[in-house]
Please model this.
Amino acid sequence: MSETAVDQNPLKDMDDLDALRIEAVIATDEKHVYRDYEAEARSTVREFYRLNHTYQTLDFVRAKEQEFKPGAHGEMGIWEAMEFLNNLVDDSDPDTDLSQIDHLLQTSEAIRANGLPRWFQLTGLIHDLGKILCLLGEPQWSVVGDTFPVGCAYSDKIVYSEFFTANPDYQVPEYQTSCGIYEEGCGLDKVHLSWGHDEYMYNVCKPYLPESGLYMIRFHSFYPAHTGGAYGQLFNDHDREMFKWVKAFNPFDLYSKTAVKPDAAELRPYYEDLISEYFPAKIAW
Ligand SMILES: [Fe+2]
Ligand SMILES: [Fe+2]
Model:
């Protein structure tokens, strides 16, 4: 990369995003000691959101929805995709050497330990597999981070919402009303959210998982709505009902990270069995 080029991948560790979210919630917990690297994480997260908010336009999202229709990138089994995703192992985090597969297994194991249904456990296991987009050449700002609707006004519940002034859609009056290009109460299925691993994985899983699991995958990064309470004008009654699942899933995603590394080899037979209940040996990516 030339010195003048913008670094498309400012995050050394994609978990920085979650680390800052958790910090916001448990900042008063004196048992939690924060490391110096968090100041750096804060500036890389800021740069990450500057890129994300500048380039995620309605046109960009529509183009990515076409480009990443399932099948465009071959076939893989679920466990194979987990191992593929593990190539995203991060070695810059001073606090943990947990990999992507560890996060998936910690999430599913926390759900399992709470006695929740098998489809819920499976959803936890696979919810971030869409991050393989990074390995398919997509920049971080097009894969991770909180999601938000495009084609309508930006909520101030979106982190770093001040960066939207650089987004070309900000200059389009039609896109800057409360509902924008959408009808009030139209339902989230008609709404284009900023592109990332949630929407991609939702499309990959659509033929196989129960709808509640699909909602959890599709909207788990939609923090402005599931945590911030924004964008109710675009929800229909069914979305409101299904968001109970999205909210139920969130703590397992956010708080299941512990230093204890799950034993993937030991857990694999249990999860291979669970995967085969819902998925064929190979699925389209
Ligand atoms: Fe995620
Ligand atoms: Fe996650």
